[in-house]
Structure formats: structure tokens, C-alpha cells
Write a structure and sequence with these properties.
The protein is of the alpha+beta class and 787 residues long. The chain has 27 helices and eleven strands. It folds into four domains: 188 residues, Multidrug efflux transporter AcrB transmembrane domain (Multidrug efflux transporter AcrB transmembrane fold, Up-down Bundle), CATH 1.20.1640; 96 residues; 239 residues, Multidrug efflux transporter AcrB transmembrane fold; 164 residues, no CATH class. Strands 6, 7, 8, 9 and 10 form a five-stranded antiparallel sheet that branches. Helix 10 packs parallel to helix 12, helix 21 packs antiparallel against helix 22 and helix 23 runs parallel beside helix 25. The radius of gyration is 32 Å and the shape is elongated.
């Protein structure tokens, strides 16, 4: 690896006048191209074989206009009523405008007989049920804005209008710019302290930002080929900034030290790319491999996040070994310009009295307390993980100024929180026995209506009730006619009625809607509204109870095939699928990480320690995530006002990212330790010298990465907050492991740490990531030439 990287670094440094403009052209071209394509995202929750996907497939064929469920356009007035005067006229105009939109199949007014249940008793709050021909995965922000623009008549009338459901979520994507700025600002401060000059500080920032622009453009292009989740660009930004700055930090630290030892700039750049750059390539490769292993989870949404994140890391690695050496070549000795007072930069080689060398000796004197205390701390942090619950995205925790959160709160206050978590029940009738009207149903409805009408007249005569206005009387008549039509239609089929009654009686169910049946009687659908919210464990349990206990007996008795679908059920299915695949993905990633570390460092104990400690670090991070979001510890500090479950795909993505990133720091520690081992073959000297050399850069890199990840806690999306908290604390844990626990255990084990069986030495290629043998030969040739 060292030879090609040495040549690449030297070539980039010498021809910086070509490389830098090429990178600028690449950045501009990629950004323009991606913007022209619109950078499409798609929150596709298609999970073949699950109830939610089967429900969608059934409805797509039998009742396509109902396949995506409905989204609510919430209307509220503080004075007056929605049903009278200008408000009523504005609502009717809004409904007509919505029905005329090409993305809308149907819009049901709360002022109509069909939508009467969508209005509160005081007539001040209601919602239009909008059925879109675009699924939650297919709806773009531009399309969502076009649909919502049709509500202007209601807005002009002074009605407070907000969008819920997946339409509202698409309109409420939080801005990430404040997080970007904060993360970069902290990185600048750390880099100034580490490098000691403004010129050196600017290099990692420039390289990371240019690489990030290319990486995000690639994510935009990927959206044309695969379903890229909405959170992918944000996750890519977090990861791209963090690894982009860190990788440059490792290389520049080596370059600065070499310059101060008297090596000429171009030669120093080439050597830094061949040594530290080799470690960067290997570390980046481990991150990419870990992310690509998400493929084995079998979930397209998670696979897509793995692919897009891996693209960003790949670009960061490429920029570190091509753009960065060009920038360093252009600077030459000027990298030491604009010095920062009191910041001395990297200590010279051989300095044994700096802070980090003293820290290494302290760990070396008493490794047992460091190992025991560190592992005990991680074990304590991991305890809450055993109560982790995977759930759906919690839209009720979005920022209060977003239309999604406003609609969520309005619906919860007026109709109950369960209206935000509708379940879509899809029913297939046997081909030889389609749905048919119940002959007695219409007569029963007429009898019930007559009794209700007589009771109302008696109440009016007794002065217990006011006579209805002309508008109210017309609405009552329309409702009566609607009930008669439903009774005379196939929705009154006794089999369907039996199913609806059983579901309505299930514990935790608030209400169900009237069923819609296809013209051929093959398919029916109705909504079931739970009492709990979309992310609540009670809702998850209700979905399981309906599928496992309530529906199967009815299906067997009546010959039906019933699926529970909708977005809420899809997130339940996603959580189940991830729970089933998590162990497999972890096993694959750990195994591949073990093989890579063993091949590079010629040891079996080191990769075993690395794998076990990485697993412990991830579990501890899961524990912190659970304590913060489910137990509610410090939630108000991060801008949330209630506990929520961990979003189902967060732990799986976190594991892949964290396992790869933790390998980064271990690689840089072990590289320094292996250099000392090859030189002395003294296990104690190897660990102490390696730790003394690597700790400073590792702590600085971890501080930057922690700051970048933590800055995204400011993001309004609760899912992004979870990534921010989980990744930030996991990086801090990784740094603790690498500068204390890992070296302490290696010191306690001693010489067996570097044991590698002879048969493996012969069969496994020696992958020297920092080119020790290459530079020995190179320096020997130079010496012979000089002589």
C-alpha cells in the first residue's frame, strides 16, 4: 500500500496547480448536476412478506385510490365555527382545490356527511381527509408544497391550517445548517490548538467541506437509482464532516512533525500520505465495509442508508490522499504561517515529557486499575440497553413551529392522540364469494333512524334540545342517506361486519371507520384508530394482538384474508425486521473486522480485544441512547418535552458506523505500537511508546468527531437527535477505550498480545499499512546514491 500512496502523494504535491483546479471543477459539476436532478429522497417502507406491505399490495390492485391511506389537513378557528359563513365557504373552496390537484385522489370535507366525524363538537376544529396517489416514499418536498398550496382559501379566511401524516412530515424537514456551523466551529478551535497555525487548521476544513459537497451530490445522484431515505443527506453530512476532518488531521500531524525534522515539503507530503495516509485508507475501508454489511440485514431502507453513508466516507478517503497533498504541496513551508499564541503544534519526535507521553507511562505503571475501572464504567453505561424499545419516528416531538407538530397536537387535543396513528385494515374476499349486501341491513338502518328521529323530536318538544338549523337539518338528511347507501352496499356484508366488530372491541382500540369496498367486491378497507400514539408501545402491542389473536379466528371462520397496514404498522414491521437481522449483521461486521485487524497487525489477541471492546462500546452507547430518550434523562436539554422509543433503524446504523469508526482510532494506536514492537520486540515498550505518540492525535480527532455529532442534537428531527446523541457519546467511549482500556489490557497480557501462529504467518499476506519495509528500502537506496 505504501508504494502507490507514496507516488500518489508526491504526484499530487508536485502538480498541485492541476489537482486543485480539477477538484474545484469536480465539486461544482457534481453540485450543479445533483441540483438539476432534484436530489430525490424516498422513505420507502416496503418490507416484502410483512403485513403492512401485503396490505399495500392488496389495495394497490383492488382499491388503488385507498392504498396510501389518508393524510389530514387540519383546520382550526379560535372564534366562531368552521361550519358557518366565510369559514364554511373557504373550506369548500379548499376541498375543491385539493380535489383538482393531480396528486389527490379524493378530499373529504369535514362539512360533508361522509366527513362529519372529522369535526369536533364545538365545530372549531376539524380536518380534511386527503387521499393521495403518492405513497409516503414517493412524495417529494416540492409535491408536498404544491398540494399544501391548495389550502390558501382556508388560510386567507383566517383559519389555522396545518398538514399531518406523511404530507406534514415532508413539509417539516428541519434545517441542518446551524448544526453544520457549530460542528465546524468547534473543529476549527481544536485544530488551532493541535496544529498551532491558522494555515494548517484551514487544510482539514477545506478538504472535508469539498469532499462533503461531492459526497452529498453522489447521494443526490443515487436517489435517481435507488430509494434514498430522507435522513440520508443529514446522516451523510454528520459522517462526512467528522471523518473528513479527522482523516486530514492524522495526515497533517505526521507532515508537520516531518517538516520540523528537516524533511523537504514535497517529500514530507509523499511520506505522510504513504504512512498516515495508509492508515487512513485502511481505517476508511473498515468503515465502508461495516456500512456495506448492512446489505445482509435484508431491509432496503437500511441498505440505502449504508450505501449512501459509504459513498460519503469513500469520497473523504479519496480527498485525503489526493486533494489534501495538493493543498499541502501548494503551502509548502507556509503551513507554519499565522501561528497561534500558546499553541505549539505536535511535539517533536523523542519528546518524552509532554502530557501524552506522561499519560502513557502512567497507564504502563498500573494497567490493572485502568482496565478494571474502564470496563466497569462501560458495563454500568450499558445497563439501560436491556430495556431498549424500538419504535416509530415520533412526529409528536418535532419542533413546535412545524406544520407536522401543530397538526399532531391539534388532532391529539381534539380527537385523541390515536388519530395520528391510524391502522389501515385491508381485506380480501374469496374469488368465488365476493362481498355482497346484507338484505336485512337497510331495513335495520331505517328502523334505527326512525327511532333516533322520534327521540330527537320528543327532546325538542320537551325543550331539552334546540331545533336544528336549515344547514344542520340538511347535513342530518345527507348523513341518513349515506347510512342507507352503505347498508344497501357490499360494506354491509355480514363477514365484513363481523370483522369490524371484533377489531372495534379489541383492547386499546378507539374507533373504526366505515369500510370501503371495491366495485367487484374482492377488496375492502377501513381505518382502525388506536387509543395510543404512533410511537407508543401500546400501539405496537395492539398491532401484534390484532394480527395474532383478533383477526385470525375471524379469517378462518369467514374465509377472509386480512392485513393490518398503514404507516404506523409499517414502522412496527420495520422494528421487527431489524430485531431479526441485528445479530446477523453484528456477527458479519465483527468477523470481517477481526480478519482485517489480524492480517494487518499479525496478531490474534489484538483483533479479539478490539472486537470485544468495540462491542462493549456500542452496547454502552445503546445504554446512553435508551437512558436519554426512553428514560427521559436530560431530554429537556436537547429540546424534547417527552420520552420516546429509539427509532427502529437507529441502532443498526449506529452499530455499523461505530464499529468502523472505533477501528479508526485503534488502527492509529496499533500502528504506532507495531512500529515500536518491530523495533524493540518489547511488549511493554511497544504499548507505552505507541500510546505516547498516538494519544494526542486520537483525543483531538475524537473531540472533533464528538463535536460534529453532538452539534446535530440541535436538529429538530428527533431521529437525527438520536443519531447525534448515540454517535457523539460512542466516539467519546471509543477514545476512552483506545487511550486507556485497550493499552492497559495489552500491557497485562504482555508478549502473547503479538502472538500469530506460524501457519498463519505463512498463509496470510503481510499488509503493512504504513510501509515500514518500503521506507527502509527507500532510505537505503537514497543513502547508497548519496555515497
Amino acid at each position: 500500500m505504501a508504494r502507490p500512496l507514496y507516488r500518489l502523494g508526491g504526484l499530487s504535491a508536485r502538480h498541485w496547480k492541476v489537482v486543485i483546479p480539477l477538484w474545484i471543477v469536480l465539486v461544482v459539476a457534481m453540485a450543479v448536476g445533483a441540483n438539476a436532478g432534484g436530489r430525490p429522497t424516498n422513505n420507502n417502507l416496503d418490507l416484502p412478506g410483512t403485513g403492512s406491505t401485503e396490505a399495500t399490495n392488496l389495495l394497490t390492485v383492488g382499491l388503488p385510490e385507498q392504498a396510501n391511506g389518508s393524510v389530514p389537513i387540519v383546520l382550526e378557528v379560535k372564534q366562531g365555527k368552521l361550519t358557518t359563513g366565510a369559514n364554511a365557504r373557504a373550506i369548500e373552496e379548499t376541498v375543491k382545490a385539493l380535489e383538482g390537484d393531480r396528486y389527490v385522489n379524493q378530499a373529504i370535507s369535514p362539512l360533508s356527511a361522509e366527513g362529519a366525524s372529522s369535526l369536533t363538537a364545538d365545530k372549531q376544529l376539524g380536518f380534511i381527509s386527503v387521499f393521495l396517489n403518492l405513497s409516503s416514499g414517493d412524495l417529494s418536498t416540492e409535491q408536498a408544497e404544491q398540494i399544501f398550496a391548495k389550502t390558501r382559501p382556508a388560510q386567507k379566511a383566517g383559519i389555522d391550517v396545518n398538514a399531518g401524516g406523511y404530507l406534514g412530515s415532508q413539509l417539516s424537514i428541519p434545517d441542518t445548517s446551524s448544526s453544520d456551523r457549530l460542528g465546524v466551529s468547534v473543529a476549527i478551535i481544536v485544530l488551532l490548538v493541535v496544529f498551532g497555525t491558522v494555515a494548517a487548521m484551514a487544510m482539514p476544513i477545506t478538504t472535508a467541506l469539498m469532499a462533503l459537497l461531492v459526497g452529498l451530490a453522489l447521494i443526490g445522484f443515487a436517489g435517481e437509482l435507488i430509494d434514498v431515505p430522507q435522513v440520508a443527506p443529514t446522516l451523510g453530512t454528520m459522517l462526512g464532516l467528522a471523518v473528513g476532518i479527522d482523516y486530514s488531521l492524522f495526515i497533517i500531524s505526521r507532515h508537520q512533525r516531518q517538516l520540523r525534522e528537516g524533511i523537504e515539503p514535497e517529500e514530507s507530503v509523499a511520506r505522510a500520505i504513504a504512512t498516515a495516509g495508509g492508515a487512513v485508507v485502511f481505517a476508511g475501508t473498515t468503515v465502508i465495509v461495516a456500512l456495506l454489511c448492512l446489505y445482509f440485514g435484508g431491509i432496503e431502507l437500511v441498505r440505502s442508508l449504508g450505501y449512501t453513508s459509504a459513498l460519503v466516507v469513500l469520497v473523504a478517503v479519496v480527498s485525503a490522499v489526493t486533494l489534501l497533498p495538493a493543498l499541502l504541496g501548494a503551502l509548502g513551508h507556509r503551513i507554519e504561517s499565522l501561528k497561534v499564541p500558546l499553541a505549539k503544534g505536535p511535539p517533536p519526535t523523542g519528546d518524552t515529557e509532554n502530557l501524552w507521553a506522561r499519560w502513557a507511562r502512567r497507564v504502563g505503571r498500573r494497567p490493572l486499575p485502568f482496565a478494571v475501572a474502564g470496563i466497569a464504567l462501560l458495563a454500568v453505561l450499558a445497563i439501560p440497553m436491556f430495556q431498549m424499545q424500538l419504535g416509530a419516528v415520533e412526529f409528536g416531538q418535532y419542533p413546535k413551529d412545524t406544520t407536522m407538530r401543530k397538526a399532531y397536537d391539534q388532532l391529539a387535543g381534539g380527537f385523541g392522540v390515536g388519530l395520528n396513528a391510524p391502522l389501515l385494515v385491508a381485506v380480501a374476499f374469496p374469488a368465488d364469494a365476493p362481498a355482497k349486501p346484507d338484505p336485512s341491513a337497510e331495513a335495520q338502518v331505517q328502523l334505527r333512524q326512525q327511532e333516533e328521529q322520534q327521540q330527537a323530536q320528543e327532546a325538542i318538544a320537551a325543550g331539552q334540545k334546540q331545533p336544528p338549523s336549515a344547514a344542520e337539518q340538511q347535513l342530518l338528511e345527507e348523513q341518513a342517506q349515506l347510512q342507507l347507501r352503505q347498508a344497501a352496499g357490499p360494506a354491509s356484508d355480514p363477514r365484513l361486519q363481523d370483522l369490524e366488530n371484533e377489531i372495534a372491541a379489541a383492547e386499546g382500540m378507539a374507533q373504526i371507520s366505515a369500510a370501503q369496498v371495491s366495485e367487484d367486491g374482492s377488496t375492502a378497507v377501513f381505518s382502525a384508530i388506536p387509543e395510543s400514539g404512533p410511537a407508543a408501545e401500546e400501539t405496537r402491542e395492539l398491532v401484534g394482538e390484532l394480527r395474532d389473536e383478533t383477526i385470525p379466528p375471524v379469517d378462518r371462520k369467514e374465509g377472509l384474508t386480512t392485513y393490518v397496514g398503514g404507516q404506523t404498522a409499517a414502522y412496527v414491521d420495520l422494528g421487527d425486521e431489524i430485531s431479526n437481522s441485528l445479530v446477523l449483521v453484528i456477527a458479519i461486521v465483527v468477523f470481517l473486522g477481526f480478519v482485517l485487524i489480524a492480517a494487518v497487525f499479525r496478531s490474534l489477541i489484538i483483533p479479539l480485544l478490539a472486537a470485544l471492546l468495540n462491542l462493549l462500546a456500542v452496547i454502552a452507547a445503546y445504554g446512553i441512547l435508551t437512558a436519554v430518550f426512553e428514560f427521559g434523562w436530560g431530554l429537556s436539554l436537547i429540546g424534547l418535552d417527552g420520552s420516546l422509543p429509539v427509532v427502529s433503524f437507529v441502532p443498526l446504523l449506529m452499530f455499523a458506523i461505530l464499529f468502523g469508526l472505533s477501528m479508526d482510532y485503534q488502527v492509529f494506536l496499533l500502528s504506532r505500537a507495531k512500529e515500536a514492537w518491530d523495533r524493540s520486540e518489547d511488549p511493554r515498550v511497544a504499548v507505552i511508546d505507541g500510546l505516547g505518540l498516538a494519544s494526542r492525535v486520537i483525543v483531538a480527532a475524537a473531540t472533533i468527531m464528538f463535536s460534529v455529532f453532538a452539534s446535530f442534537i440541535l436538529n429538530g428531527d428527533p431521529t437525527v437527535k438520536q443519531f447525534g446523541v448515540g454517535l457523539a457519546f460512542a466516539v467519546a467511549i471509543d477514545a476512552l477505550i483506545v487511550v486507556s482500556i485497550m493499552p492497559a489490557l495489552m500491557l497485562m497480557i504482555g508478549r502473547p498480545t503479538w502472538w500469530f501462529p506460524r501457519f498463519l504467518q505463512r498463509g496470510v499476506p503481510d499488509i503493512g499499512i504504513e510501509g515500514e519495509e518500503f521506507f527502509k528500502d527507500l532510505d537505503a537506496r537514497k543513502d547508497s546514491t548519496d555515497n
